[in-house]
Amino acid sequence: MKLRAGFLTLLCAWVMILFPSAGAGHGPKKHAGSSCMLKELSALTKVLLVMSLTIFDEANGKHLGTWSPGFPQLQVHKDSPFHGPEVQCSLIFMASGLENVLDDQKNNLNPIDTLLLRQLKETISRVSMLVTCVRDIFGGECSPKPTPPKMPKHTFERKQWGHTFLKASRDYMEWLEDNRNSKLKHIIKINHGVTKGKFKKYLEWSGYLNNPS
């Protein structure tokens, strides 16, 4: 119980750090015409995935091993190119897989674990928001939409599947964090039709101007 209470405290602290206005009862500040703040949203999503994985392992077992087929849709190398529509597809795939994990935990494995269920719901919500955010900033559209992943039948394999999926999602978000800023600057610089003022506005929309990473 102390560990779970600590997670809630840590999550609240992260929300206050990433979205300071949340404490005042308001959503994150947006500039005119913007749809999201990519820096803050991606950072929060990564934190939620890390915490979801930890709470999942606490509830389902800490030595589950790895689901050997893996999830190629979430596998990227450090130097993999950042392509907006492909990132959208990976995030859509991530959200659908997390829905499977939530459904299995809610209806089968841990139906009364309110902390885990709430954590997964919040994570799914942020991943879905991130899909829209990436589309609005980088353009393009995921097509065709990825086929939702299928969970195995046996109990231990489902736990292993969920653990591996959460871990792959966390690793993907770490890659996204490392590549988002350089990609944003690159696409603006190569677009000769974008003015310097427009470039500044893109950086403001994405949350980079005042806090570059």
Shape: globular
The proportion of residues forming helix, as a percent range, comes to 55-70%
Number of helices: 6
The major pleated sheet works out as: none
Rg, alpha carbons: 18 Å
Beta fraction = under 5%
Structural class: mainly alpha
CA-to-CA gap between the ends?
A: 35 Å
Uncertain segments: 21-34, 192-196
The whole-number mean of residue pLDDT values reads 80
What is the chain-wise order of helices and strands? HHHHHH
Number of strands: 0
Note down, in words, how this protein is organized.
This protein is an all-alpha fold. 64% of the residues lie in helices and 0% in strands. Helix 2 packs antiparallel against helix 4 (114-138) and helix 2 (38-60) packs antiparallel against helix 5 (155-189). The chain is globular, with a radius of gyration of 18 Å. The two termini are 35 Å apart.
In short:
The protein has 213 residues and is mainly alpha-helical. The chain is 64% helix and 0% strand. Helix 1 packs antiparallel against helix 2, helix 2 (38-60) runs antiparallel to helix 5 (155-189) and helix 3 (84-109) runs antiparallel to helix 4 (114-138).
